[in-house]
């Protein structure tokens, strides 16, 4: 099967890269990615998993985002089959990897596995195209696309398209995960500040924006308050925390983190 890409294919690829990078949050990024892929690589069910690592163990970062048919037997898969050698190999992935199930072993072998009979057959799926997404030398996510048995296997061209896009997908995923981590850390820090210095919730919101180094006009607009009200909040924060300027306030927040 030819993997040659034509002008129309490259236009789809460029548009997909744009939409991937335009996503502002994880959920929209995952779903938009699957939708874009579906326009180039038809599938009946697509899953986008995110993984987090604790020591040597990988965990799912919430439920997968789904495009197409709703997945069934996910609990059974996670309980019984996720540690199967075929799936656990992803945990040692240190680079982006795109492959079909049939690239790993022939159908006559795969169709005899318990997970194929217990999960795939019952959902009417047979062919799979997978992308293990890695960044910084470790697995951070995966995209799994499925087709029914009466369809054809994924082509060399479709493998190539997903291979081209996988680097962009993994890079954007790593950026969004890093941003989410920072936001989570800041939220914990704000809660500690509120408890320690007797701040109001609104004052905590002001601190979050102040330490992001936004101009006062942008902070006031974002919080839907007037510039004079913002100045009053900042003055009250300085009094409660015992600081005299933003640099000192930033130092306090950093010490709490």
Question: Cα-atom Rg, whole angstroms?
Answer: 24 Å
Unreliable stretches (pLDDT < 50, length at least 5) are: none
In total, how many beta strands?
A: 6
Structural class: alpha+beta
Our count of helices gives 12
Kindly identify the CATH topology of the largest domain. Answer: Beta-Lactamase
Series of H and E elements: HHEEEHHEHHHEEHHHHH
Q: Assign the CATH architecture of the largest domain.
A: 2-Layer Sandwich
Mean pLDDT level: 89
Shape: elongated
What would you call the quaternary organization? single chain
What portion of residues belong to β-strands?
15-25%
Number of folding domains?
A: 2
Q: Biggest sheet, in brief? A: 6 strands, antiparallel
**Can you identify the CATH class of the largest domain?**
Alpha Beta
Which SSEs are present, and which pair or pack?
Layout: H1 7-22, H2 26-40, E1 45-54, E2 57-60, E3 65-68, H3 74-81, H4 85-88, E4 97-100, H5 101-104, H6 107-110, H7 114-123, E5 127-135, E6 138-147, H8 156-197, H9 201-210, H10 216-223, H11 227-241, H12 246-256
Antiparallel strand pairs: 1-2, 1-3, 1-6, 4-5, 5-6
Structure explained in plain terms:
By secondary structure, the protein is of the alpha+beta class. The chain folds into 2 domains: about 5-175, Beta-Lactamase (2-Layer Sandwich); about 200-255, Arc Repressor Mutant, subunit A (Orthogonal Bundle), CATH 1.10.10.10. Helix content is about 55%, strand content about 15%. The protein is built from 12 helices and 6 strands. The chain has helices at about 5-20, 25-40, 75-80, 85-90, 100-105, 105-110, 115-125, 155-195, 200-210, 215-225, 225-240, 245-255, and strands at about 45-55, 55-60, 65-70, 95-100, 125-135, 140-145. Strands 1, 2, 3, 4, 5 and 6 form a 6-stranded antiparallel beta sheet that branches. Helix 1 packs antiparallel against helix 2 (about 25-40), helix 8 crosses helix 9 (about 200-210) and helix 9 (about 200-210) packs across helix 11. The chain is elongated, with a radius of gyration of 24 Å. The model has no long low-confidence stretch (mean pLDDT about 90).
